[in-house]
Amino acid sequence: MTKNRPYRDRRFAGRVLAKETSLVRPGENTLVLALPRGGLPVAEEIAHALDAPLDVFLVRRLGLPDHPELAMGAIASGGIRVLNEDLIESARVTSAELAAVVKHETIELARRETLYRHGRPSPDVRGRPVVIVDDGLATGFTMRAAVAALRRAGCGHLTVAAPVGARSTCAELDAEVDTLVCPLQPQPFHAVGLWYDKFPAVEDDEVFKILARHMDRSAA
What are phi and psi of 172, to 5 degrees? Predict the structure, then answer.
């Protein structure tokens, strides 16, 4: 590892998170949920440490029409939508453009639900302690959409866990959840991948393998 990259890879970051004293099992029947795809290797390490089941929670970033890598918001299962109104206004995104992006990402969200679940229902989170995990928190819009959806679904104690996050994003999320675990909050932040030595894209095949391992473990 280098001075500026404290995490070797996502799994190493997950093991670091799992050792955080504030990341304690918040109750019986705790469920660990990952934002795919990058959050899944991190979450698997946490699920092992907590001896808790693991699943995915689907969200989609809403990218600016001309700069899709820049989030103007996010959507999550259950019709949840979180928008960066200031960015939408400053970028002069029209209502028609926003609607087109939302429609496209809603279709992709449904496609991934089918792809990753293979007919399995979404986990019932009502009254259940949930730890929701990603590999980093930049703007935080995808995580905020997930938090809003889980709150609407009636989850119990809600913990957000990420290895690294922008300080302002972490402050906003801290006010929205019961527990925030984010040990590294650098200033300036720049980008999630800068804090990892290895930060390759997580492909669908890896997602399938991780979920299959945990489905087999749950069945056993």
Answer: -65, -45
Domain edges within the chain? 10-219
Residue where the block lists tokens 């001896």: 51
Residue range 10-219, CATH number: 3.40.50.2020
pLDDT digits (tens, 9 = 90+) for 87-133: 999 999 999 999 999 999 999 999 998 889 887 888 899 999 999 99
Cα dihedral: 210, 211, 217, 220 (round 10): -140
Paired sense of beta strands 59-63 and 54-56, if any: unpaired
Q: If you ran DSSP here, which 8-state letter would residue 77 be given? A: T
Distance of alpha carbon 16 from alpha carbon 120, whole angstroms: 31
- Output the CA torsion 70→54→149→140 (10° steps): -30
Task: State how far the Cα of 142 lies from the Cα of 197, in Å rounded to an integer.
Answer: 24
Tell me, yes or no, if the pTM score tops 0.85: yes
